[in-house]
Amino acid sequence: MTSTNPLARFAARMTDRSAVIGIIGLGYVGLPLASRFSELGYPVVGLDVDAAKVAELNADGGFRRYVGLTRESVRFSAPFTATTDFSEAADCDALIICVPTPLGKYHDPDIGYILDAARSVRPHLRSGQVIALESTTYPGTTEDDMLPVLARDDLTVGEDIFVVYSPEREDPGNASFSIRQIPKVVSGVTENCLRAAEALYGGAVDTLVPVASTRVAEMTKLLENIHRAVNIGLVNEMKTLADRMGIDIFDVIRAAATKPFGFTAFYPGPGVGGHCIPVDPFYLTWKAREYGVHTRFIELAGEINRYMPEFIVEKLMDALNGERKALNGARVLVLGVAFKKNIDDMRESPSVMVIEGIAAKGGEVVYADPHVPVLTLADGSRHASCVADAGTVASMDAVVIATDHDAFDYEMIGREAKLIVDTRGRFPASLAKVTRA
User: Fold this and answer.
1) What fold is seen in the domain 232-436?
2) How many CB atoms lie within 10 A of CB 86?
3) 339, 369 in Cβ contact below 8 A?
4) Which pLDDT score, from 0 to 100, does residue 6 have?
5) Distance CA 229, CA 297 (A)
């Protein structure tokens, strides 16, 4: 007999894998989640406002483009369809919102995509559905901002529908951890909502981490990313000091990392990129002002990290000066423009700021990135990736290692390049043509 209790009915459908999972937002978070549920045998409906993306995904080709996945690299034992028609939300037992949360012009949080998603599904809600938010945001978003948009007089939260928050923990390009392996923080607006969250995600991941409230879960995600931002800021500041003192910061980190307790290795680079690290700390600094708190430590880390592209351009100028050359008119090859190695994600990439900084000083700059065939700069100009072969490398006055993709031939680069500005520690600092930056 089918239970009349909406929560029990949902849990039963998750157990027998007849529940239809709706994923709202088909990007770096939503698509891997869709593939995981489909792999487990759940029918999955992907909802997105981008008609071109939806068409591409339905034709299979979009998986590689958007998340580096293909139909062959994941097991789709259940149907997956993408659509722009949000009325199909009515057929879904769970609706998981995975939309962007960018910053506004003045570093104020923009939760417009979350609220738009809530407005789009509200007319199609029915008893027994779970609405889960995974987007990174400030504490209070789920209950104070999204919940009022979802509210309907005929559906009681915690009895008829269940609203939960479970922050995504995606790490694009990291093959060491799958969705199943990463412990998942879950929370709910009510106790029944938390139970619904556990039913939704319990079969998809090995370990659930229930927390007391949606605010705790929202703050947890921010702490995780602020922890990285602050420590990256610290090691980037240490890099600039070590550079002045003639010390190789990578040697220092390797030595410090041998301590088996009390130290976690973070590595310097050209700055921070991606959606999380450059953006999420400002969600908390903005919210903190509501409580009269000035988050100076977090803001200082952001200031240091934003300075790194400028520091690299300065180091490039110094290295060229050492060869009696000016940056103005020099031919410079920037290797890697994605924000991290072996992916195509360009969001907030500091490599782009390095390219723009070199061009602003008169450098003739080109880039090579096997994952990013075309690059659009802030001025709207479009540039095509060149091939980092021996002839190209040898023809340049300097090569900047901005993102150290494994696809680059570092042995050849070390042999052919006249001058190397290395922001990632790929070459020994003892090599005469190498400048650490």
Assistant:
1) Rossmann fold (3.40.50)
2) 20
3) no
4) 96
5) 10
DSSP state, residue 109? B
Cα-based angle 187, 190, 193 (whole degrees, multiple of 5): 60
CA distance 203 to 193: 17
Q: Read off the pLDDT band of 215 (50, 70, 90).
A: very high
Average pLDDT of the segment spanning 229-234? 93
Which residues are the active-site residues?
Answer: 276
Q: Which residue has the tokens 């990736």?
A: 385
Alpha carbons 131 and 112: distance in angstroms, whole number: 17
Of 21-30, 60-69, 89-98, the range with the lowest mean pLDDT is 60-69
CA distance 215 to 85: 31
Burial grade of 210 (CB within 10 A; 0-12, 13-18, 19 or more) = middle
Q: Which two tokens stand for residue 202?
A: 């319990």
| pTM check: above 0.70 | yes
Q: Regarding beta strands 382-384 and 374-376, do their DSSP bridges make them parallel or antiparallel, or are they unpaired?
A: antiparallel
Q: At residue 269, does pLDDT exceed 80? A: yes
Same fold, 6-211 and 232-436: yes
For residue 356, give the H/E element and its range. Answer: helix 350-360
What percent of the chain has pLDDT above 70?
94
Enumerate the domain spans of the chain.
6-211, 232-436
pLDDT digits (tens, 9 = 90+) for 71-106: 555 556 668 899 999 999 999 999 999 999 988 777
Q: Count Cβ atoms within 10 A of the Cβ of residue 238 and give its class: 0-12 exposed, 13-18 middle, 19 or more buried.
A: middle
CATH: 3.40.50.300, 1.10.3720.10, 3.40.50.720, 2.10.25.10. Which one for 6-211?
3.40.50.720
Q: Give the separation between CA 100 and CA 113, rounded to whole angstroms.
A: 6
Lowest mean pLDDT segment, chosen from 92-106, 131-145, 265-279, 373-387: 265-279
Return the closest-CA partner of residue 354 out of 410, 437, 281, 256: 437
What pLDDT is stored for residue 4 in this prediction?
Answer: 77
